[in-house]
Write a structure and sequence with these properties.
- The chain has 343 residues and is an alpha+beta fold.
- 26% of the residues lie in helices and 22% in strands.
- The protein is built from seven helices and 15 strands.
- Strands 3-4-7-9-8-13-14-12-11-10 form a ten-stranded antiparallel beta sheet, sandwiched between helices. A three-stranded mixed beta sheet has the order 1-2-15, with no helix packed on it. Strands 5-6 form a two-stranded antiparallel sheet.
């Protein structure tokens, strides 16, 4: 019989449709059309991108927009929001508006032409994570911005572009995104009631039960959430409480890089290189003022959400907000635990 499950953080309900239960091999394999033309993200093609904002370079390669780099960050050529201008908050009757000010950057994760982060080694992923932190901290200095979302789209079904070269993106926004705000509100409500972090309680329960635990490695856990929206959805969380991803210490970044690569390899092997999105949810930028949220450092907990795109969202989901998931998180965790990521 299908089962309704409620997410303990945001209160969202999902349907685990056990009558439609699917194993990894039951999902259709991801087949991407070949890329056309030169890859603008490959080393040697720096002239095909906008001028770089930031780069990690080899010691002898100091010239910007040239070879010898390990990571490059460039502005998006199709920005959702633009860096220039002021916010211009205004109203029209009951409606609120502001100018589309923000930042939209592309993090080119390797000079080599490989398609996904699962194909990078731990050291290169470590550099990618350090670059995320560098860019978040730099954009934090801009008082127009309240939030930076780091995300990755992989595969056309996950909204990726036609460029088959491993890259992720970030967008800085002048308002807090709705989904993040729902997590913030849910975490604060739980903290007000129990004086504990809801994410810390999730970690403890899932480590105790082992049912939804995929990995426990060097200060981080990977779990399949109790009420997942998508089959084989995985969350990575630090076991030590922290609300800000950008506060992670360098030794811990090395452990996180290993965890992230292992999980992405497991998903690739188990599901046939599926399209996916991942997002980093972290606390927003905080400027103390009247009514300042004083418990956010205690009640929120940063995490990475990895969402394979194996099913389609249709009318019922759009009309109700329910997600239908044909694979229970307990089954997904068991499959992933047993996968040899080096196969």
């Amino acid at each position: 019989m299908p089962e309704l499950r409620k997410d303990p953080i945001v209160g969202r309900w999902v349907i685990i449709s056990t009558e439609r239960a699917k194993r990894p091999n039951d999902f259709s394999k991801n087949v991407e059309p070949p890329m056309q033309g030169q890859c603008p993200f490959c080393e040697g093609n720096e002239g095909l991108t906008p001028h770089e904002i930031y780069a990690v370079r080899n010691p002898e390669a100091r010239k910007p927009d040239a070879g010898g780099w390990q990571i490059r960050v460039v502005p998006s050529i199709h920005p959702v929001l633009r860096i220039e201008g002021d916010l211009g908050r205004r109203g029209s009757g009951m409606y609120d508006m502001m100018n589309g000010v923000g930042a939209h950057e592309v993090i080119i994760e390797t000079p080599k032409h490989v398609s996904g982060i699962a194909d990078l080694d731990d050291g290169q992923i470590n550099k990618v994570l350090l670059t995320y932190i560098e860019r978040i901290n730099d954009l934090h200095k801009d008082r127009r911005f309240k939030y930076v979302l780091v995300f990755k789209n992989y595969g056309s079904l996950a909204g990726a572009s036609s460029i088959r070269h491993s890259h992720s993106q970030l967008i800085a926004t002048p308002v807090n995104p709705k989904l993040v705000k729902e997590e913030l509100v849910g975490a604060r409500r739980y903290f007000d009631y129990k004086e504990r972090c809801v994410f810390c309680d999730v970690i403890k329960q899932d480590m105790d039960s082992q049912e939804r635990l995929v990995m426990d490695l060097d200060g981080f856990v990977a779990i399949t959430p109790f009420a997942p929206r998508f089959p084989f959805e995985v969350w990575i969380l630090p076991k030590e409480h922290s609300c800000d991803f950008s506060n992670i210490k360098k030794p811990s970044i090395e452990h996180l890089a290993k965890m992230l690569r292992t999980i992405m390899r497991k998903l690739k092997v188990a599901l046939g290189d599926p399209p996916y999105n991942y997002v980093i949810h972290t606390a927003p930028f905080r400027i103390p003022k009247a009514g300042y949220w004083r418990t956010i450092e205690q009640d929120y907990h940063w995490h990475i959400e990895i969402m394979p795109r194996l099913t389609k969202v249709a009318g019922f989901e759009w009309g109700t907000g329910f997600h239908i998931n044909p694979t229970s998180p307990e089954d997904a965790a068991k499959y992933l635990r047993e996968v040899n990521e080096n196969a």
